[in-house]
Design brief:
heterodimer; A: 647 residues; alpha/beta; Ubiquitin-like (UB roll); Nucleotidyltransferase, domain 5; six-stranded mixed sheet; B: 313 residues; TIM Barrel; eight-stranded parallel sheet; two-stranded antiparallel sheet; globular
Chain lengths: 647, 313
Amino acid sequence: MNNQKKYLIKFLPSGKSVKVSPDYNLKQAILDSGIHIDSSCGGAGTCGRCKVQIREGKVNTKKSRFISSKEKENGYVLSCLSKVESDLIIEVPSQKKAGVKIEKGRFADIESKIYADISKDELSAVEIKPWIKKGTIVVEKPSLSYGTSDLFRLKKSIRENLGIKNCMVPIHIIRKLPMVLREKSWEVTVTMDKENSTLIDIQPGRTDKKSYGLALDIGTTSLVIYLADLENGKIINSESEYNPQIKFGDDIINRIVYANRKGGLGKLKEVIIDSINNLIWRLLFNSQVDADSIVSMMVSGNSTMMHLFYGVPPRYIREEPYVTVANKFSSSTAKEVGIKHIKNAHVYNIQGVASYLGGDIASGILAADMYRKKELALFLDLGTNGELVVGNSEWMMGASCSAGPAFEGGGVKCGIRAVDGAIEKISISQKTYKCQTEVIGGGKPVGICGSGLIDVIGEMYLKGVIDRKGKFNKDIGNKYLKCADDDCRYILVEGKNSAAGEDIYISEVDIDNLIRAKAAIYAGIKTLLEEVDMSIYDLDKIYIAGGLGRHLNIRNTVIIGMLPDVDVGKYFFLGNTSVTGAYLSLLSEDKYRQSSKIAEHITYIELSVNMKFMDRYVAGLFLPYTDMKDFPTVEECLYSLGSKIKK
Amino acid sequence: MSLQVPKNTYTGKINVVKLGKDDTETAVGGEAALPFYNFEGEIPNKPIIAIEVYDAKPSDWPQVVSKYYDDVFDDPVKWAQKSINEYGADAICLKLSKINPDAGDMSPEDAAEITKTVRESIGKPLIVYGTGPMEKIAEVMKKISEKNKDSNILMGWVEEDNYKTMAAAAMAYNNNVVALNPLDVNIAKQLNILLTNLGLSADRVAMDPSSSGLGYGIEYCYSAMERLKIAALIQDDKMTQMPIINNIAPEVWKVKEVKESEENYPRWGSQEERGINWETISCMSMLLSGTDIIVMRHPKAVSLIKEIIKDLW
């Protein structure tokens, strides 16, 4: 029956191969073979990143604006738009792949003073009291006159000693119960999940075996995990990794689209769980911690990521009226969600607010300590989506402004995440228009990360390399500006000085994407504040979260009109607050409960249907903003720079 | 008790743009109140009507309008003169269709020559529009401006892709430009900022908000134009104080409701009457929205609109 013809596809330079049926999608074949290929649009043919070269054989491909006529002659096609029609030999261009050192949260690296120390003392102020409770108890011995079951007497003892009623005991524990109870003459150490009154682990006698927990942030772009000692709160180790789902789409919308396809949800869940397993394995290996001693894991992430992590269809997040299946998923054992190594640990997640305002934001508010303070603050997470919350201890309002992944390197040709090799700081010489760069890790540059991109736009604008619309000024004698046909590129680092030997540049299309992203963020801030009848000047503090790079230059974010023109002293850059909040929740029962309260506390506003948001977005497609009155200090700065800008 | 008419006060004023030189000089703009609110502020200049003239016979005009120009299609000078002398145009809007690379790719020099000849023969202000890619338009306008130095012609169009060349062309030879925006207040402002930042004086710019004709979203055009005028007059926003020009004729004469004959749609009635009404109502709506210059086609619609302007101002 299954004698349908198959074609053999061989991939260069890896030498991998795969057999597929006729008319099979070429990009899917590449993914099937295990080769990484970028595709920010998820296979819709709109990003042009999955370009490959057909060396031998035939495909049925569609026209694309990303393939020039010369490339077409040389056999280049977009793999997502191509169907296999014969045996093939395909050259898959090597993708920019930087190291996997992703920014970790504030507490992971306190010494390097990466982040503003707004609550340096906070960690010491956190009462380390996880809801994972450990205790040594003595269970009553049975006798002929007191012949109740082992389980009954265990539960009784737990109730009397630890104050937990109706404790649930899973079957895998009951299985070993008779031996464990009798091994050290009825003395046992139990580990309890107080939240769910469930027994997690039981050990014979009094053990001083330590308990550990994991705090995990599942970002659209990256994963960060901490291993923490649950007794003293110390972070033993941390690991990070790209979110492997990126190859199915850069942003959450494309992931949801992929999840709707046949088998898509399963695939997305599978790859994320694989990656998490891998991270946990690395953590355990590097820290020599016994897998059994990990008793809990706290997960934080946006609503879509949480749906995919738990294998819940995210479809309705994307369809009007945009609802989640759940904002908080019931806690379960690691085994139930598919996590290996630490099968019996309990997995919890931080409660989200709405479809586009997830647990990562509640976690961030927790980390920023905004919910306990009277002062009016704005919390801004510049992740792939761009979420914001305004408020204080009494009220909070939140919104999402779909800024897109530009500041995480998406949609920008030479953009990368804040990893080793990323240019994180840039200045431009007013005389020669040559760029000075600083690179994370100090080596040769691979690409530009968020903070570097913000610097580029700000500097180009101030030095007159681009006009207020983001178009290059071609008549200023900038010899680093290379134009061919309609395509102009400003060379930031020449090929001879870059890691890959190719120019690192920024084009008008890149600038356009960045300007769109910054316009969405500022429009979001202004519109959200107006909803509560406030202005930017009412804000006491502005917290910035996200993995843009350590040296985010706040002044440049103001110059490009992304963040409000207020005293720079009001800004605090916090890095990855999602993992910080997860970590705090892991350590403290109070914090965990608080995170749920925060989520319930935030009123969500839908900006996508707000006319004023759209109006401001268009006004923001200009540097810094159409109406200069919003940016008085930028205007002053331009005046002092004189006529150069006006050119 | 007598009725007290409530009055708004305005802080801003529309710029006065001068079209033409010496005896052809005509001022547009300058109003200090919303359209028809002449009891609230001074409206010194009435809106003017420009009639379209092309450099070649248009292929897509319905007979009910082309019949008025049949004898002059081959000569833009005669066409312009007829529009002024017989149909009462206040200005001429010369449309250079042949400069489009797809329709002859006429050289800037030739285009400039035609423009000059028309301007010198009409004794009224001249508006000149290009067709085709924005870069080509800018290249042509540069030459036109040079050949028509110091004559305050109004040249279109400016977009973000060609604003530098267009501004330079206007500044160097003392002419005016039309900044085109897609019915968006912010984009209109952005373009005006870019132009004036280059040093072009604000009173050398008119705005075209790309309005459509009746039945094709004219309500939204009204709203966009009203917002521009409100920002200019009430908020005194300097970057929206440019007079507005509406190139409405081609929008009206391309729609099905005007192009279909009575034969095909007997219930729609006379095609000519329908076309005149369609153009008149569209233009009237633009007047209500605050236009300062209106580009028209059918002589009878022109005469109706002239009457309305005379009655209401």
